[in-house]
Amino acid sequence: xxxxxxxxxxxxxxxxxxxxxxxxxxxxxxxxxxxxxxxxxxxxxxxxxxxxxxxxxxxxxxxxxxxxxxxxxxxxxxxxxxxxxxxxxxxxxxxxxxxxxxxxxxxxxxxxxxxxxxxxxxxxxxxxxxxxxxxxxxxxxxxxxxxx
Length: 148
Known about the structure:
Strand content: 25-35%
Distance between the termini: 41 Å
Strand order of the largest sheet: 3-6-4-5
Number of helices: 3
Radius of gyration: 15 Å
CATH architecture of the domain at 55-148: 2-Layer Sandwich
CATH superfamily of the domain at 55-148: RutC-like
Mean pLDDT: 92
Number of strands: 6
Order of helices and strands: EEEHEHHEE
CATH class of the domain at 55-148: Alpha Beta
Helix content: 10-25%
Shape: globular
């Protein structure tokens, strides 16, 4: 796998992470996010395809994750936001074990696209996704600043 682009510095998020001391320390996600004022953006499921709807990496979960996150950030930017405005994400995969096995590569893709902001997240293993070649789908919610 070619390396994802180097991490892009992201501005500090306007939201506040909520990780209660009475819960296990989260790794790669937050237990909760207290959203700053702004406009709600509901992010539709993004898969690892290109702008023509083709899957350039049909058997590579990490590379599909990288493209899915790139697509998610494209939607955020179009709405006037960025990765730091994401408050929650749901990740659907065909294999949770494959996600664990490729955690290092997926983490590098995450940092390249999302920086070091980890919103409230959940990962779900599903039998199949709507797009037959998809190995992962990412959807979520963001709170983007009011346009000035």
